[in-house]
Amino acid sequence: MQVLTNPSQIKDLKETRNPNLLYLPPEFKAETGIERNSSYTLQKEFTVEGKATFENKPSKVSVSPAKNGKSSFSWQGNKYDLDPEKCIKGNHNIQLGEVKVIEHPLAWMLAFGLYADFSLEEASLPTFDYCDRVYMEGAKANLKQVGNRKPIFVSSPFALVWEKGYCILEPEDHDKLIIDHQVSYPGETVGNSRIEMEFNSETFSFFGDARTTAFRNKKDAENFYQIGLAGGLKDYPFTLENVLLLDEDKIYNPREKFLDAKSGYNYEFLCHEIIDIVSWLRFAEEEYEGRFVGRMTTFLFDHHKQIDIAQFVCNRENLEKNGISILS
């Protein structure tokens, strides 16, 4: 990956983006009572159940109040705090030590300023029919404030650029986290869609149940659809309830909730993209003990690239070598 700090180079990246921006419809939000400058933990433990994503076995996940003001994931007696240096690039997910598919709960914690401990029966977290809704329901009337959550932000704009894709971080003169994300897929279903939104607990409480996506060519998608109608795969917990299946010009199992009545556009794909791409910021928040604010602009930003940038941003020496720091 290449680090860019020159404003003209960053400007050049932005000028290649799709000029047609999508925005979340205003009704895609819900009141949460969360104070953005406060941090929270749970009052008491709760348990969620599902099929572990890679093991395809029934599994329980216990979510409990964070100890010592830090979050962690545990499996078979091994406990991992949110240190990106402990991340592993394996299957398409964010893996921390031996614990896999942590990106969804990370996004939930990021949105709510929440610190929690996760204990797993299997090494991978389940892929739920409603993604992060199970965590949000377990946390209802179950949160307590534990301190202030100071804003943290980058001292100056920079971009990390890979062979394909990039992520730009910039400070902003406001107290918000703004996401500008673009995807690139064949056909018209998703295409080169670009969305800009403020990421916070109110918007996340609406779209946090957007399903994991499966984009396939038409032949494979049709095959997957028939498998889904027959009950799903035998060796992987794929069903038409926990995965959003689409091809170049068709969504096979849309949910009406994500349909914008005015435009006819279904936002579920892009909403799950947001869940995936913001999750790495939780590593930075735990490292610098704050709430990340500013603007993040992304393109082709997959889970392995998110591990790269988490390791870069959480390494003060890396930042200093490039004239960058995290301020509060």
Q: What's the CATH architecture name of one domain?
A: 2-Layer Sandwich
Ranges where pLDDT stays below 50 over 5 or more residues in a row are none
Distance between the termini: 27 Å
Tally of DSSP helical segments: 9
The tally of beta strands, per DSSP, is 21
- Average pLDDT, all residues: 96
Output the structural class: alpha/beta
Oligomer: single chain
Kindly estimate the percentage of residues that lie in beta strands according to DSSP.
25-35%
Main sheet summary: 7 strands, mixed
Provide a brief overview of the structure.
The protein has 328 residues and is α/β, with parallel strands linked by helices.
What does the model show?
This protein is an alpha/beta fold and 328 residues long. It has a domain at 2-33 and 152-276: 2-Layer Sandwich (lpxc deacetylase, domain 1). Helix content is 25%, strand content 27%. The protein has helices at 7-15, 103-112, 133-139, 201-207, 218-229, 268-278, 281-288, 303-313, 316-321; strands at residues 2-4, 22-23, 38-42, 46-51, 58-65, 72-75, 78-81, 87-88, 95-96, 116-120, 143-148, 151-154, 158-161, 166-170, 177-182, 194-198, 212-215, 243-246, 291-292, 294-299, 326-327. It has a seven-stranded mixed beta sheet, sandwiched between helices. Strand 6 and strand 7 (78-81) form a beta hairpin. Helix 2 packs across helix 6. The protein is globular and about 55 Å long.
